[in-house]
Amino acid sequence: MGIPRPSGRWLCAAVAAMAVLASPGGGKVAAQIPAPRERPQDFTPQTCAGECHKDILERKVMHGPAKQDCGNCHVITGNPADHKFAFVVPKEQLCAKCHALPHDTVMHQPVKEGRCLECHDPHGSQHPKQLLADPKRDLCLRCHKADFRRSQFVHGPVAVGACIVCHRPHSSPRPKLLIDDPKTLCLTCHAEVQAKEGMHAHAALEQGCIRCHDPHASDHHFQLREEAPGLCLQCHKERFDQITAGAKVVHGAITAQGGCTVCHESHASRQASLLRGKQPDTCLVCHDKALKTAQGAAIANMTELLASNPDRHGPIREGACTACHEPHAGQKFRLLAEDYPPQFYAPFQIDTFKLCFKCHIPDLVLKQSAQGLTQFRDGDKNLHWLHVNQKKGRTCRACHEVHASKRPSHIREAVPFGTNGWLLQINYERSPDGGSCAPACHVQREYKRDAAKPLLSGSLGGQP
Ligand code: HEC
Ligand code: HEC
Ligand code: HEC
Ligand code: HEC
Ligand code: HEC
Ligand code: HEC
Ligand code: HEC
Ligand code: HEC
Ligand code: HEC
Ligand code: HEC
Ligand code: HEC
Ligand code: HEC
Ligand code: HEC
After folding, report:
1. Where does the pLDDT of residue 443 fall: very low under 50, low under 70, confident under 90, or very high at 90 and above?
2. Which atom of ligand 8 lies closest to the CA of 274?
3. What average pLDDT does the segment 345-352 reach?
4. Which ligand is nearest to the CA of 342?
């Protein structure tokens, strides 16, 4: 913009002599300079500046016409001895005499009003383009108070006053004088945010970065317009209203500040559902300490539990906490994906154990004869059937730790019994052909399997 080179779009008003000036860029530009003979002999920069206005010629960046001829802009009026000057054209039109700036659809107000001198010095200055101040530091702040710079989180370029990395100073074909459309603009400096080969991109990016970020500043980290989950719910509210409406358990993770983004990436991810990483790591970001449910129940420190119990349950070895838990909200106790009785004793009904029998064979508890179904048998009597399949049946938690254990078959060390926090020791010991536990729920008991019959299909019906 500005001075087109080399052909030029200068405003050639009168048919005056054309002088050729060397531009700082080395290219030649033609400018309309009044012919010397039309001017008083002593009206040269040397005479004017040499005597009284020396400072005008001693600027780091000089405006070509001022270096060459003061008469380009000033004329003496009245008696020369009075040393009174006028401009060759009205001051507001002076610059337009030689410069034709592009008039894009969006004009910056001071430019539209011809107030070029609010930003440029007509003679020269210490800054490029004869600007009155450093355009990457404080030029724009002469007029824009930029109150947003007092926000808690200020965008890097804004903090230093480099407004022109994003805005054009004169005019632009885009709203808000932007250099480029906001999305492309942001990526010129933040290309790392883009989805790379093999990554899923968040569809929200199509609406542009400034849908979520304030380009200048905000009181939220990363200049976010709002913190998650509020930010995310701006678009996902409907879906979440569906999940949480009437949900018995809403996961604290989704209501916690920043919640959604602990598990999800905001921009792109290699994992499905924009997940940040593998389980259990993502879960352990928060479950690395004891927590409390909304009802005040204690939630164990899972990091500690997994670290001190090396034998992990199959799905956990596979990193699939969500094989059993809903990540957001659900109808079941402990966010479980399927039914599982919350108590120690529960009247037996196969449907209430859907969670376990999603993967394990129901016959494990349905059949009285073990028939090679389970190692937990005395002779051929199925001890799972015996313990679980009762009016006052024991739920799996009476004996098994569902996440991880030290003992074989995920038998627990102890089980919480009653409501006063008493831990009942199980003292399970395995033997080559059976096992024993006690004294606990009952006096010491042993079970001994009949001739070792291998399990027909393992514990997982039909599943590998
Ligand atoms: C490109 C046009 C232009 C040229 C060439 C030019 N001036 Fe100016 N000059 C101006 C304008 C415009 C103002 C008024 C500035 C303002 O109002 O802020 C001005 C103001 C002045 C002033 C008064 C205020 C000040 O800045 O000190 C003096 C003195 C002056 N010019 C001297 C000169 C001398 C000497 C030359 C030649 C070396 C020269 N000018 C060349 C445009 C020009
Ligand atoms: C008499 C013609 C003339 C007038 C009037 C004039 N300019 Fe210039 N201007 C030039 C020429 C020729 C150049 C190129 C030489 C140079 O770069 O200094 C130039 C260069 C510039 C540059 C630097 C451009 C670059 O790319 O580096 C700026 C900025 C500028 N002028 C602003 C102004 C402003 C603001 C005014 C009004 C106060 C003005 N000019 C009035 C002739 C003029
Ligand atoms: C709000 C401040 C501001 C105003 C007002 C302003 N300019 Fe500029 N101008 C700038 C900045 C900043 C640059 C340098 C842009 C860059 O380096 O990217 C510039 C650059 C220029 C250039 C160099 C070529 C170019 O476009 O980069 C010319 C010529 C110029 N201005 C002329 C004018 C004229 C003529 C006016 C009045 C019609 C004017 N300016 C008004 C801030 C301003
Ligand atoms: C001489 C005072 C002045 C200077 C210096 C100035 N501006 Fe402005 N700017 C204005 C005015 C006046 C408006 C219109 C009123 C408003 O929106 O605040 C405006 C509006 C804007 C707008 C909004 C345009 C729109 O379409 O809504 C942007 C963006 C902007 N300026 C950027 C800049 C940048 C970048 C600089 C530095 C290169 C700068 N301004 C320097 C006075 C100035
Ligand atoms: C990282 C790029 C970027 C930087 C740096 C930047 N802006 Fe902006 N600015 C924008 C974008 C994008 C918009 C449009 C916002 C929108 O449409 O919601 C904007 C809008 C504006 C507006 C219009 C009013 C508004 O807030 O929407 C003004 C005025 C403005 N900027 C001034 C400035 C000033 C002054 C600076 C320097 C202190 C600056 N900007 C630095 C990107 C930037
Ligand atoms: C000219 C380069 C530039 C452009 C263009 C730019 N930024 Fe930045 N951005 C930076 C710099 C520099 C930082 C500060 C560096 C840092 O803190 O790591 C930053 C920081 C950020 C941060 C905070 C990063 C952090 O770790 O705290 C966000 C978010 C951001 N930019 C978003 C945007 C958005 C959105 C846009 C487009 C409107 C944009 N940026 C355009 C240079 C740029
Ligand atoms: C759906 C909302 C959303 C959109 C759209 C969005 N971001 Fe972000 N961005 C965030 C959130 C939330 C964070 C906070 C860190 C996190 O949780 O990922 C963030 C963090 C950042 C950061 C700093 C941390 C990092 O990952 O480097 C940068 C830089 C950034 N965003 C740039 C961009 C750019 C550039 C775009 C446009 C291409 C964009 N963002 C679009 C929500 C968004
Ligand atoms: C500007 C609207 C908007 C915002 C804000 C937004 N999203 Fe999205 N998001 C979408 C759209 C559109 C889709 C694609 C359709 C769908 O799955 O609902 C999507 C999809 C998703 C998906 C599913 C991706 C997949 O591959 O299945 C996740 C996860 C997601 N968003 C998380 C978030 C998180 C976390 C935030 C907050 C940081 C957020 N979204 C903010 C619009 C948005
Ligand atoms: C504890 C981790 C976690 C938190 C916190 C979390 N999500 Fe998810 N989200 C997931 C997992 C895991 C999936 C994949 C579920 C699946 O594959 O069945 C998912 C799937 C999604 C999906 C796509 C599938 C669907 O269910 O619609 C969207 C959209 C989504 N989450 C948005 C959000 C938003 C918005 C928030 C915050 C309000 C949030 N998530 C909080 C873990 C989480
Ligand atoms: C952002 C932190 C955070 C993350 C990440 C997180 N949780 Fe939670 N979780 C909590 C908080 C806080 C509670 C306690 C409040 C409550 O009950 O929801 C909780 C409770 C739970 C509960 C008990 C719910 C109840 O009320 O009975 C389960 C089960 C659970 N989380 C599983 C998971 C799983 C599985 C993951 C990984 C997919 C995970 N959590 C990731 C914060 C988190
Ligand atoms: C095989 C199904 C299953 C898998 C896989 C699973 N859980 Fe659980 N989880 C449960 C059951 C069942 C309960 C309820 C335990 C009880 O009350 O006896 C539970 C309870 C919880 C609780 C509440 C603990 C407390 O002290 O009450 C948290 C937290 C939890 N799980 C997190 C996780 C995390 C993290 C993962 C992945 C490492 C995971 N779960 C994997 C079935 C599972
Ligand atoms: C998502 C599938 C899945 C669910 C749901 C599931 N399990 Fe498992 N379970 C497995 C896998 C896989 C193994 C490992 C089998 C192996 O190592 O041969 C396993 C192993 C076991 C073992 C130990 C077997 C052994 O001898 O080491 C026990 C005990 C067990 N599960 C109990 C349960 C209980 C109780 C539930 C319900 C609370 C349950 N499981 C829910 C998949 C599941
Ligand atoms: C009274 C304690 C007790 C209860 C209650 C119990 N189990 Fe077991 N379970 C055991 C013992 C002991 C073993 C180990 C047998 C062996 O290897 O000698 C076992 C083994 C298993 C195995 C490994 C395969 C096999 O059968 O040998 C699975 C799977 C299993 N139990 C699932 C469950 C499920 C599901 C429930 C709840 C419906 C449950 N158990 C209830 C004590 C119990």
Report:
1. confident
2. 29
3. 94
4. 11
Q: How far is the CA of 106 from the centre of ligand 7 (A)?
A: 28
Average pLDDT over residues 293-318: 94
What pLDDT does residue 83 have?
Answer: 82
Residue ranges covered by each domain of the chain: 18-104, 244-335, 345-448
d(CA 69, CA 23): 15
Task: Output the CA–CA distances (angstroms, integers) from residue 334 to 316, 327, 330, 410, 448, in the order listed.
Answer: 16, 11, 9, 20, 35
Condensed to tens digits (0 to 9), the pLDDT of residues 118-160 reads 999 999 999 999 999 999 999 999 999 877 778 999 999 999 9
The β-bridge partners of 125 are 61
Amino acid identity at 296? G
Q: Up-side HSE of residue 20: CA atoms within 13 Å toward CB?
A: 6
Contact 184, 178 (CB under 8 A): no
* Gap between the Cα atoms of 193 and 205, Å rounded: 10
| Residue whose entry in the numeric block shows the structure tokens 């859907």 | 354
Q: Cβ(460) to ligand 4 under 6 A?
A: no
The pTM (predicted TM-score) of the whole model is 0.90
Contacts of 380 (CB under 8 A, 6+ apart): 369, 370, 371, 450
3-class secondary-structure state, position 199: coil
Question: What does the pLDDT read at residue 21?
Answer: 34
Q: Which atom of ligand 8 is nearest to the CA of 275?
A: 29
